[in-house]
Amino acid sequence: MTSAERQLDRSALLALPGVLVVLLLFIYPFFYGLVLSFEPKEGGGLANYLRFFSQPFLYNTIATTLWIAIPTTLVNVGLALPIAFRMQRNSAWQRVLTTILVLPITLGTVLIAEGLLTYLGPQGWVNRL
Q1: What is the pLDDT of residues 59-114, one digit of tens each?
Q2: What's this model's pTM, rounded to 2 decimal places?
Q3: Contact (CB, 8 A) for 69 and 76
Q4: Following CA atoms 77, 82, 83, 87 in sequence, which dihedral angle do they give, to the nearest 10 degrees?
Q5: Would you call 32 helix, strand, or coil by DSSP?
Q6: Greatest Cα pair distance in the chain
Q7: Residue 83, exposed/middle/buried by CB under 10 A (0-12, 13-18, 19+)?
């Protein structure tokens, strides 16, 4: 194994914390909820599912969710693909468009960090108390 291949293996380890976070925050709760759904307070293992699919109000929520999610997904993909292909050409507007798309994502994080510094920083309210 060459040193370049070993370096790739080491850099691939940088993804490990992200994978662990995804497992911890998304995969584990999903499977935990799935297991709990087969352990109802009353009835057998499928009692929750029988109750859900026997009441029109409950099973109609699936149709309502799809009625909202499918058009939204189609609009998002329909807008995202042309923008992505346009940006692939290295247009002059690439930096402006990237800024417009990234700014809302990072702004919330920056504001939260600023708020934490205000409360928990060296000169923050918590330390002054």
Answers
A1: 899 999 999 999 999 998 898 888 777 777 766 777 777 777 777 777 777 778 88
A2: 0.47
A3: no
A4: 140
A5: helix
A6: 64
A7: exposed
